[in-house]
Amino acid sequence: MIRLLARSLLERPRRTALFLLGYALGVAVVTVLLSVGEAVLNEARDKDLLGGGDVVLLPVGMDVEALKVGGATALYHRISGLRFLVRSVLTSPRVAGQVAAVCPRLVGQQVYLVARGRVTPVLAVGTVPSRERAVLAGWSWPDSFADAPEERRLLSPTPEEALREMDHFHLPPEAPGLRGAAARERGWVEWHYFEVFEPATGRFAYLSFQVLGDWRAGEALGVVSVQLGRAGRPLRRAVGTAGGARVRASLERPDLEMGAGRVRLVGSRYRVSFAVPGASGEVEFVPGAGQSFTSGEVHGDSGFVTGYAVPFVRGAARGEIRGPGGPWRFRGAVGYHDHNWGVWRDVRWNWGKVSGDSLSLVYGQILEGGRSQPGFAVLFAPGGLVGVFRPDRVTTVFGDRRVRTPAGEARLPDAVRLAAAAGERDSLRVDIRVEGGAATVLPGAPRPDAARLRRAAHVFLQLRGSYRVRAILDGIPYRVEGPGPLEVWAPLAQAGAPARGARSRSAGSR
Questions:
Q1: Could you tell me the residue ranges of all domains in the chain?
Q2: Which of 139, 351, 354, 460 has the smallest count of CB within 10 Å of its CB?
Q3: Span 303-312, average pLDDT
Q4: What predicted TM-score, i.e. pTM, was given to this entire model?
């Protein structure tokens, strides 16, 4: 090798020298990049320097080595979900004693400055003065710079402000040329769902306030569904509808009115009232502190969109519901509330929740076009969020029990299971034994026509089950057991062929 190099140098000295120079420059560039990357990482870890802190948060899919060498995945990255991260994750009881201060920062945002007829591109930096002073005591905005009202609401909203932000109604997508029932057929639905459960008696109620179609144009259909039950007994259901100008929603608050059904936010409490054929009542819900799961949307490749928010996983409920079995007055009941919106046609889902004194769980997964979106499972302790998991799938185990609907027969599941892990010290396993429930072919369609029944391939099941939750958080085991609702979809055994004389055990949805 040495003789070959020597001969090459003697015969072609210029080319060899140029090659060696290029190789040396390449080694030097790599060495400089590694040194600069190491310096940037050390600076990020130094709390006395700009941008410093004790913890560096990286987006999913990017590692520290990529940050050090300036890899493609390190360019222009953003961490999404700021509200959820700052309000729930970094205030969790698991880390609250370790986090002294949090300062979000938007760096390198391209803006354009227009002055005296000239346009100058600049890079902007956004931050919150009070938070930055807490993190960077030696370098920050002077005390004369106070937080703007929008900055305070972003990071430290009042309970009412937080509920208004996550629980307002949304603008349905425009449907040119479609009006009335034709617009509703496209599948846009938005609804409030409340649950009341009384542990002492085992009684429960599902209250659903659905808006189908574009309420702005006065052409939406409002459906109020009330389902009352008790362990070991069939559900009793009452439904009322309202349409046209009687359906009014708010883009800034949870407030909704549809005929004799009403949802109002008064301070940080929900007041729900309804009067439909067969049932009426008034219920007040008081959300528990730190029990919310902020709103988010999922967009599919086919153009569907679904949104979901849980203003409170656990809260207090008191009031009175009057139904076929007589009045039910409750004061020490447990309440739950979620809000859903989106294009739900040809979309199915798995969902469930259970609340215990020490731990509460809510999980969900969307299935669209034969494909399943990543699921989620969230754990809450009385002090707030303690765990977020992403199960690959929710497994439904069907047995021999069957339920009949106008479109055919379907099997009821015996069990539902899911499992997930988050890191080396966090894991979750959920086993649900299904005790019973009710079925409907088309959620959101109180009186489906024959054509839609013939096209139906699945049935929507609202079930009640016995939950067995096993979680390990930071290596410490937790468990919760108790009754709770769940929802699944089952294939129709006789899709497209209504069974003669069949009767639906439930004709609507949550």
A1: 2-56+64-69, 104-156, 159-345, 346-510
A2: 139
A3: 86
A4: 0.80
